[in-house]
Amino acid sequence: MGLVRSIVAPRRYLSSSCNIKAAVMAEALREFSSCDIGDALVKLKIPFGGYLDGISMWSPTRQGVGESPPTVVGPAVTVKLVDVDDTTAPKPDVHFADANEPGKVMFIQQPPHMYSACFGGLMATRAKYIGAAGVVVDGRFRDVREIQEMKLPLFAKQTSILGSNGFSRVSEINVPLRFKDDLWINPGDLLVGDHDGVVVVAPYLVDQVIELCRARKEIDEKTMAALNAGAEMGPTLKKLRK
């Protein structure tokens, strides 16, 4: 098993000061796109640049359709699902929809072979009422139009017409989850989502990511200005992207 990148206390033990710090970090990251952050994480040699490939925006609009909504940023609340027939996995004391918190992003992971949804309109209504920043589903969801109408930011791999009943169940809340290989999502990691995709940032990397993003943003702005003025791509990149 790969190493978990950082260890974060379970949600019930996080202090108010930790929540305040997380909110500050989230706001600082909001300045940048998922592409900016992913490039920075590649430079920092984070597996896959923190990119959650295969997951795209479905709400409030479909990825690449219409105007781009604001970037979604928030600390992760993780939810692990297992096959409904799994009798050995633990069971939580609360419904996972009640485990979300204001300003946080719920990351839900279902077994990869599932063709049923693990999130839908009722759970979205609860997330909206709580004030969740958004939801990321490593799997399928349903009630697309309903969720779009309530404008809850939601990212997922795909949709389904089937609910979770008879297919999967929640096993654990706020535990480290492996996305793939050595890329993990831990409770409290920052999830950043926009029209380009979703990226995960461990809190201890935020300052380095911001520094790299600001430097790259300045270079990109100069590059764009040069290209708009008719400069050739090759010499411009050679000059500015050293």
UniProtKB/TrEMBL annotation:
What are the alphabetically sorted keywords of the record?
A: Magnesium, Metal-binding
One function term, GO molecular function aspect: metal ion binding
- Binding site residues for Mg(2+): D143
> Binding of substrate: at which residues?
G120, G121, L122, M123, R142
Per the record, the coiled-coil ranges are none
List required co-factors. Mg(2+)
The record's SUPFAM superfamilies line, in alphabetical order, gives: RraA-like
Origin, by domain of life? Eukaryota
Isomerase among keywords:
no
The keyword Metal-binding is assigned to this record: yes
PANTHER family membership = 4-HYDROXY-4-METHYL-2-OXOGLUTARATE ALDOLASE 3-RELATED
User: What is this protein's name?
Assistant: Ribonuclease E inhibitor RraA/Dimethylmenaquinone methyltransferase
Please report the organism this UniProt entry assigns to the protein: Lineolata rhizophorae
State the taxonomy lineage.
Eukaryota, Fungi, Dikarya, Ascomycota, Pezizomycotina
